[in-house]
Design goal:
351 residues, alpha/beta, seven-stranded mixed β-sheet, four-stranded mixed β-sheet, 18% strand, globular, binds 5-S-methyl-1-O-phosphono-5-thio-D-ribulose
């Protein structure tokens, strides 16, 4: 099993996703600042993985704090959360994780410092285990939607590498394959960071799931040729009305799917649903370094001085989404009601 991230005695250990697929190396972050850097530089990426990494970073900072009073520890916690909260703006799982750790701390503040530290670490570990369980549940719900046989297209990497394990969109595909469905995955390359060709293809090859990598501009032609029976992608933030922010290029895939009569599914845990965000226009979109566009493997691909845009995400309006697969079941239009119903009983922080 791929260990995307893990709590260890010497720190938080990540598979270094910037080095895949050619090098399988691991980095151990010994401080919360190093965890923040790992999120910022995309050593760890993918919304649910970012959420769990944030929780583990916070736990690391709290565990190593020299604070002598709970009030002092709370001040440090706020600072740690502030640093981690400034790493990447779009995936709401980051903020969901920060809020959950803050709530847990509030719950514990009457306890001795040693116990607070221990339980904060336990909470982060629970979030890791819960994410894997949520992905497996999404897989069970979503696998029924995929064809018994044929091509399934995905964009970016919403797999084990983007989560604590198993994956959201790739979890649905994995579950369908486990049920005996004969799925052939078409993985969009996903320019500019190449999460599809580097990461999705890597993890599907490891599992022996038949996979074809295509460049992003081939997706429409593949759909028109009848090679794609369904599309399943992940999400970084889902607004209350069902609009979905995901990796740049997802919107084009969704529109092409509609044109070709192919169902476009989104698989995401409820920690990705932001009911405080009314619609997609309010989702903050991360702008990344232009160098990701101008250079491929260190080689310059555009003339000096040309203008560049590099938004990391786009928003797919809810009307293109056939269903949203969550760990609690499948939401369909109208999403304002179905998402609220699924998220409504969101569990309280564990005592
Ligand atoms: O910039 P990234 O690689 O963090 O973007 C990842 C995506 O867009 C994924 O599709 C999304 O986070 C869902 S991961 C289960």
């Amino acid at each position: 099993m791929i260990q995307t991230l893990e709590w260890t005695d010497s720190g938080v250990r990540f598979i270094d996703q910037t080095k895949l697929p050619t090098e399988e190396t691991y980095v151990t972050c010994k401080t919360y600042e190093q965890v923040a850097d790992a999120i910022r530089t995309m050593i760890v990426r993918g919304a649910p993985a970012i959420g769990v990494a944030a929780a583990m970073g916070i736990a690391l900072g709290v565990k190593d704090s020299k604070a002598e009073s709970v009030a002092e520890l709370k001040k440090e916690l706020d600072h740690i959360c502030d640093v981690i909260g400034k790493t990447r703006p779009t995936a709401v799982n980051l903020f969901w994780a920060i809020e959950r750790m803050q709530r847990k701390f509030e719950h514990l503040r009457v306890r001795p410092i040693a116990q607070i530290k221990q339980e904060i670490v336990e909470e982060a570990k629970h979030m890791h285990a819960e994410d894997i369980a949520a992905n497996q549940a999404m897989g069970r719900h979503g696998a029924t939607l995929l064809p018994r046989e044929g091509g399934v297209l995905t964009h970016c990497n919403a797999g084990a590498l983007a989560t604590a394990g198993y994956g959201t969109a790739l979890g649905v595909i994995r579950a369908a394959v486990e049920q005996g469905k004969k799925i052939h995955v078409y993985a969009d390359e996903t320019r500019p960071f190449l999460q599809g060709s580097r990461l999705t293809a890597w993890e599907l090859m490891k599992d022996g799931i038949p996979t074809t990598v295509i460049s992003d501009n081939m997706a429409g032609a593949m759909m028109r040729q009848g090679k794609i029976g369904a599309i399943v992608v992940g999400a970084d933030r889902i607004a209350a009305n069902g609009d979905v922010a995901n990796k740049i290029g997802t919107y084009s895939v969704a529109v092409l799917a509609k044109e070709n009569g192919i169902p476009f599914y989104v698989a995401a845990p409820l920690s990705t649903v932001d009911l405080n965000c009314p619609d997609g226009s309010k989702i903050p979109i991360e702008q990344r370094n232009p160098k990701e566009v101008t250079h491929i493997a260190g080689k310059q691909m555009v003339p000096d001085g040309v203008l560049i845009e590099n938004p990391a995400f786009d928003v797919t309006p809810a009307k293109y989404v056939a269903a949203i697969i969550t760990e609690r079941g499948i939401a369909r239009e109208p999403y304002a009601a179905s998402l609220r119903a699924l998220a409504g009983v969101e569990s309280e922080v564990r005592a």
